[in-house]
Each structure stands twice: as C-alpha cells, then as structure tokens.
Design goal:
The complex is a heterodimer of chains A (303) and B (300). Chain A is mainly alpha-helical and 303 residues long. Chain A is built from 12 helices and 2 strands, in the order ααββαααααααααα. A two-stranded antiparallel sheet of chain A has the order 1-2. The termini of chain A are far apart. Chain B is mostly helical. Chain B is globular. The chains are: A mainly alpha (303), B mainly alpha (300).
C-alpha cells in the first residue's frame, strides 16, 4: 500500500499509462506533420487556383513568374526537374551499382574500411557545397574546355553534381540488397563452376534486382527534390529546352528563387510556389511509394 | 538407354569452358568497379582541393569574427557562424525528446496494429519529403500562423521536423540492437515496461541514440533550402537571437556569396564552406567521442 491508499501496482500502472500515452503522442506527431504538409500545400494551392485555372497550370508550357506578362505553366519546371534527374541517374546508376557490387561481392574488409567512409563523406557533404563545386570547378574547369559553348549556369553540371549526390544512396541501398541474397544461391552458382563475375551478373544481380530498382527510384526522388546544388549550378531560367548546356529551371529551384527575393508574400507569383510545391510533393511521394512497394512485394521471396 | 544414333560430328555441341574469355570478362568488370570507386574518390578529392585552395587564403581571425560587407576582402562570417550554431543547438533540443520518445513508442510499446503500421510507414515517407517542402510547411505554420516571423526559432522548428525521421530511425535501430535478454532481465526483477525502458534499455542504447542525434544535427546545419523558404535574410550584420527576426546561417551565406559573379566573392564563399565543413567535422568527432564514452560501461 502507498500513501494515497492505492496498491502500488495500480499506481504504477496509472503512471505507465500516462507515459505510454505521451510516447504515443510523440509518435503520432509524425502523422500531424504529414497532414500539416498536405493541408498547407492544398489550402494555399487552392487560393492560387482561384486565379489560375489548374488545367492551364498543369498543361501550360510557359513559366514566367517574375517578368510580365505572368504565365504559370508548370511544364517547363517539370521538364527541367526531370532533365536534371535524368542526367543525375545516368551518372549515379552505373557508378552506384559498380560501387555496390564491388563492396558487396569483391572488396576485402580492408578495402571496405577505405571505400565506405569515402561514400559516407560524399553523402554527408552539404548540397550547397556540391553546387559551389559545379559552378566553380565542373563547369569552368572540366566542361568548358570540352564544350566551349556551355553557359556559366547549365543543366549538365547540375545533373552531374546531383548524380554525385545520389550515388552513395544507390550504392549503400543496392549493397544491402546484394548482401540480402542468400549464401546458398551464391555457393550453388560457384559449385557450377561459374566465375565470380558470372555469379554476380547471372545469379546475385537478378536476385537483388527489386532492391536495386527501389534504390534507383529513391535516388530519383532525391534528385527531383534537390534544391541548392541545382540552384547554384544552373541558376533559374525556366525554358522548355532539351539542351543541357543551357540554363533551366526546376520546381525546387523556383521555390528557392521566389522566396529568396523580395516578392511580396500576398502576390500571385508568391502564391504559385504552393502549387509548384504541391506538384513536387506529389511526384516525390509517388516515387517513394513505388520504391516501398517494390521492396515490400519482393521482401519475402527468399525467407 | 538411347538407341538413336549420335548426331553428325560437325553438329555435335561441344563443351567449351572458354576459361580465358570468361576470366577476361571478370577482370574487365573488376576494372570497371575500381574505376567507378576511383572516380568517386577523385571527385571528392577535387572538391576538397577546389574549396581549400580557393578558400584558405581568405581565412583569418578577421574573417571569423567579422560581419558581412559589400567588399569581399573585409567580409566576415560571425553572424552566420553564430546563427548556424544557435540553430543547430535548438534543432537538437527540439528533436531529441520528441524523436526519442516516438522511437521508444514504436520500438518498445507499439503492438502490430494497423495504426502503428501506418505510423511506421508514415515516418519512412516523411524521410522522403524534399527539404524544400518542409520549408514551405515551416513558412506557413511557424513563420506565419504561429507568428514567429523570419526568426531563428522558426528555422530551428522547421529543421527539427526535417531531421525528426532521421532521429527516429536512428534511435529505433539503437533500441533494436539492445538484446532481449536485457528486457527479460529487467522484467524478471519486477520492473514495469517504463522502468525497463528507462533503467535498462535507454542506457544501453544511449551511444547509438546520441550518435544519431549529433549526426542529424550536422545534417541540419548543412541545410539551406528550407531556411531560404522560411526567410533567412541575405545581409545580416548583427548576431541573431532566437526570437528576433533577421538571421542567416553558413549555407545561406555561401549561397549569397557564390551567386555573385566576382571571383573574390567566390573565394570567401569557399572560405565559408571550409568553416561549415570544419563545424560538421567537429560534430562528427564529437559523435565518435560520445559513442566511445557512453559505451565504456556496456558489455553483453
């Protein structure tokens, strides 16, 4: 019995329940955040769509939010975003997969202790630093000598550094996928006198393909949402162009540009950022869901 | 027993191991792997080389203790440095209790119900939301609705939300790595669930949790995009205080300077990058020390 007359066990359980409730509400805060993000984007985008027809917004091919006449067609921004992401994947998929296969199948423990930190360091570098690297080194020192007509700000250098940025993501997630392939498969293939490369290419790689695909889609989602590296490397000048040597504009780039200037917060241009944010959020969420789905569908194949 | 006559000699499939060709394919592939690793290493070295050679000449005591200026050779980064440290500390203070509590619930309490599965999925989805979208949320909620304005606290709250999934996932992993025998031992001594968590599991998981938090803080310090949206100012010559409007941080200062065409501004941008990288390196070092100290008494 305790001082308040109730059995100790009961008083304990009351405290326990309060604590559990507190912990659960902290976990629930995540749901509130998600709901808050969706709500903010939707409510503010609706205000914008009161002035601009959503169909025109989604199908328009001219974006001009700072120069009259204002035009809000999101296609150039989406195209610029996908262009950067595409260049990034062209760089990151081979680099990341080769690094993953090397780490997972070939490297000795000693080599791993050197290579892993390099990848982790690369992953930890602030993206603004990669943007600086693109603007100050990749474009003038590497690309200009080969492609003299390249602009100071260009989509190619942005894609290259974003590729560098997402390579560690592909490498580490794909390595996990390779490692998850059961030993038996590997040993069986070796027993059939396959060389290490054949084991990797014909047995391990196909078995890990779902994990590898999901890592690539996740990397694409990261590339689509990347802001600072892209803004510094390619500036912001949205045009519907396929020329990677020119300036362009991404969705994240627009949001950064309009909020870093002194555009009045109640203007239509400023409100358009919420509509662009909504599109960006929808695309990255869609990619993440696809990535999760691929992993979930194939998770139990070998267990 | 087959009675069919063997096929004509010329058409007979012959077993050709082709060892040499297969070995060559393997060697070339290994070569490609090494080249990929080499290329990544080279990129990292070039990046550091570029930043160090351009930035180092500008670093001196006046640069660290000075304030921004229209003239690059007189510019300093003190307001941005103080802003980064101040915001980093606030982010840690906000995300630590919330993130750890959420992780404890998900790892030690939550039964496998639909709601709890949704909570888990939601956290991994939040980890995939672009940082600039967090910025939009922070602008609408903290800066406008809660009327915190363009203040360091609004930025810190936004960044805390951004790194929360990282903190939660790291803490969950740290809790998961504590063996179940610890839990069973605590229960066997008559502990309630919370007593078990607080006295037995948390101390054992502390090294992993603290490392996770510190690394998440390092990530927050390097972020620029959400802070731009929330409203960092471009030219701040005073030291920021949490609730006062007007602040800047190192990555924003880098952005401002690097966006200018003049070479000298690129030089001080590189110098600011060096300061930022050193700050992050210090945090990483701190994480290693904390991990070593906290795990000194642990053994199982």
């Amino acid at each position: 019995m305790t001082t308040d007359g109730r059995p100790l066990v009961l008083r304990r359980s009351a405290t326990e329940r309060v604590i559990e409730l507190l912990l659960a509400s902290a976990a629930g805060a995540g749901i509130v955040t998600t709901a808050g993000i969706v709500l903010v984007l939707l409510l503010q985008a609706v205000q914008f769509f009161a002035f601009v027809n959503p169909i025109d917004f989604l199908t328009g091919t001219v974006w001009s939010a700072s120069i009259l006449p204002f035009r809000f067609g999101v296609i150039p921004l989406v195209a610029g975003t996908l262009g950067v992401a595409l260049i990034a994947l062209v760089v990151a998929v081979p680099l990341g997969l080769l690094a993953a296969v090397y780490l997972g199948e070939y490297a000795s423990n000693r080599t791993r202790t050197i290579v892993k930190p390099v990848l982790e360091t690369l992953a930890g570098i602030p993206t603004i630093v990669l943007g600086f690297f693109a603007l100050n080194f990749i474009t003038p020192e590497l690309l200009k000598p080969i492609l003299p007509e390249i602009g100071t700000f260009n989509m190619l250098s942005a894609g290259l550094v974003v590729g560098l940025l997402v390579t560690p993501l592909i490498a580490s997630l794909s390595e996990d996928a390779l490692r998850a392939v059961p030993r038996g498969l590997r040993e069986g293939a070796f027993a059939m006198a396959a060389t290490r490369f054949e084991v990797t290419r014909k047995v391990i790689f196909p078995a890990a393909l779902s994990g590898i695909m999901s890592s690539i889609i996740l990397a694409m989602s990261r590339a689509v949402g990347e802001t600072m590296a892209v803004v510094l490397a390619m500036g912001f000048n949205p045009r519907l162009t396929l020329d990677p040597l020119e300036q362009g504009g991404t969705m994240a780039g627009f949001i950064a540009q309009i909020t870093s200037g002194d555009t009045p917060q109640d203007s239509l241009q400023f409100k358009s950022l919420f509509a662009v944010g909504l599109v960006l959020f929808a695309i990255t969420l869609g990619l993440n869901l696809i990535s999760n789905r691929i992993v979930a569908r194939f998770r139990n194949r070998y267990s | 027993m087959s009675t069919a006559s063997p096929p004509a000699v010329g058409a007979r499939p012959r077993f050709e191991p082709q060892i040499a060709r297969r070995k060559l394919a393997g060697t070339s592939f290994l070569g490609a792997c090494m080249a990929a690793i080499g290329l990544l290493l080279l990129a990292l070295v070039l990046l550091l080389y570029d930043v160090i050679t351009k930035g180092l000449p500008y670093i001196d005591l006046d640069f660290i203790t000075g304030t921004p200026s229209r003239r690059p050779e007189q510019a300093g980064i003190l307001p941005a440095l103080v802003g980064s440290i101040e915001i980093g500390l606030m982010v840690g203070a906000i995300s630590f209790p919330l993130g750890v509590a959420a992780a404890i619930y998900l790892e030690e309490y939550a039964a496998n119900t639909l709601f709890n599965r949704i909570l888990r999925t939601n956290i991994s989805n939040l980890a995939g939301v672009p940082s600039i979208v967090y910025g939009i949320f922070g602008l609408a909620l903290f800066a406008r609705a809660l009327q915190l304005g363009r203040s360091p606290i609004a930025a810190a709250l936004t960044l805390a939300l951004l790194i929360m999934p990282v903190v939660i996932i790291a803490t969950m992993e740290a809790l998961r790595s504590v063996p179940d025998s610890q839990r069973e031992g605590a229960y066997a001594l008559g502990a309630t669930r919370w007593q078990m968590v607080r006295r037995s599991i948390l101390p054992a998981a502390a090294p992993g949790i603290m490392t996770g938090i510190i690394l998440a803080m390092a990530r927050a310090i390097g972020e620029a995009a959400p802070i731009i949206v929330v409203g960092a100012a471009s030219f701040v010559t005073f030291l920021p205080t949490p609730f006062q409007e007007g602040f800047t941080v190192l990555p924003i200062q880098v952005y401002q300077w690097a966006s200018r065409p003049q070479d000298a501004f690129h030089g001080i941008a590189a110098a600011a990058i060096l300061v930022l990288l050193v700050l992050m390196l210090l945090l990483n070092g701190l994480a290693i020390i904390v991990r070593a100290r906290l795990s000194r008494h642990l053994q199982w």
